[in-house]
Amino acid sequence: MAAASGTDAAGTTAPDDGSDHDTRFFGQPWSLAHIFGVEMWERFSFYGMQGILLIYMYYSVADGGLGIPEATATGIVGAYGGTVYLSTILGAWVADRLLGSERVLFFSAWVIMAGHIALAVLPNVWGLGVGLVLVAIGSGGLKANATAVVGTLYSPKDPRRDAGFSLFYLGINLGAFLGPIVTGFLQSNVGFHWGFAAAAVGMAIGLIQYSFGRKQLPASSRVVANPLPANRRAVAIGIGIAGLLVLVVLVLTGVIRADNLAGVVILVTLAAAIAYFCVIIASRHISGDERSRVIGFIPLFIVNVGFWSLYQQQFTVLTIYSDQRLNRSIFGWEMPVSWVNSINPIFVIILSGVFAAIWTKLGNRAPSAPVKFSLGAMIMGVAFLLFLPWANGAPNSTPLLAIVLILLVFTIAELFISPPGLSVTTKLAPERFHTQMVALYFLSVALGTAIAGWLAQFYDPTNEVPYFTILGVIAILLGLALLASVRPVLKLMRGVR
């Protein structure tokens, strides 16, 4: 590997420790550039599409939309977002048992592109349904495996590992920043379907770039960690087909409808989370300490659900608010609604390094995970209360700087709770249930996202005070409850902070 990277200029040979010792991509392996690129363009397409999705659904047909009632539209957005995170579990299972992470990542990118093409070219509600299902499944598969593929570039002790992941997450936020700007501009000037087409083109660019570079990824990225025995594959396929048929029947018989979709996803996700907890805690293959740590994770799980149920309203309530309440006029030019979704990624790019430096500087004096979670929930509650000075105002009466300030607080809350979330989950995971614990973390995000869509039906632009007050206070109380329970929770976590 060193011969190809140019790192042996002094005649030295890189040690064979499982790392890619290439340094051509900002000191990181050149292979990282391929994953960086496909993830950046996937986030470009994902957030670009999501930035115009809600208004596409509830705008009138005359304005290029579908004319779906706002409450139903927000429920669909929440259910879609929850399904993305549910699909990460399916994507991880397929990678672990059938194809390996790299192949699932590659095929998922194709599915995502097909979904955006469906949104761009298929008419009416059919295009919406086909497009969202494909994007949700594909995004879940890519999200579950891109991080795993990055991990194969480094040995556990490679000092570049954290910096490499930081660079990878920079790509995520660059895509999240650029996507809504491009699709929002096209939607405002030439129509919604041009915006969806731009998302498809973005994913195509990422896919083409990745197709040329994927062969350079290490063989370990294609390893199937726990291959499914050949005699069990038919059973797995049968279960999958049966599940799909049941879903089709429920849709055709009206049990699952557009207006109750968020509720269905909430119930399915909640049932899956309870089942996971019961299976892990009841297992005879884990020690007493491991069982205690899983129980200690339950309060963090609950607070994480509460946090995401508010945070993910950026794509439901905040979109409606930006469309109807926000003064988007800048020197006589009206900013597209979706551009508001590009504000948060800017703050993440700026502040993530600041937070990382603070935690590094504090070292062992840094707040424990339960304290970070409680602070994140309380700050998120404060962000909702910050809407109150402009509540019940006239159309376009909220200044743009107010939303910038509120989204800054959103970001600060996110950085307290989101980056430490997956980290503490892996630390608390029993050795035999590592993947299932990661799945539980994603289920908490899925549940919160679906709840965000369900809650949005109670948002009334003509009477906003109760909505923002009640949710803000609940989040603060949730954080305070965890803060008051830090000692017993840490005791359950058995040495994990």
Written account of the structure:
The chain has 17 helices and two strands. The chain has a two-stranded antiparallel sheet. Mean pLDDT is 85; it is low at 1-15. By secondary structure, the protein is mainly α. Helix 3 (70-99) crosses helix 5 and helix 10 runs antiparallel to helix 16. It has helices at residues 2-5, 30-58, 70-99, 101-121, 124-151, 161-189, 192-213, 230-252, 261-282, 288-311, 317-324, 343-362, 369-385, 400-428, 434-455, 465-484, 486-493; strands at 329-330, 333-334. The chain has two domains: 24-225, Growth Hormone, Chain: A (Up-down Bundle), CATH 1.20.1250.20; 257-497, Growth Hormone, Chain: A. A hairpin with a 2-residue loop joins strand 1 (329-330) and strand 2. The protein is globular, with a radius of gyration of 23 Å. It is a multi-pass membrane protein. Belongs to the major facilitator superfamily. Proton-dependent oligopeptide transporter (POT/PTR) (TC 2.A.17) family.
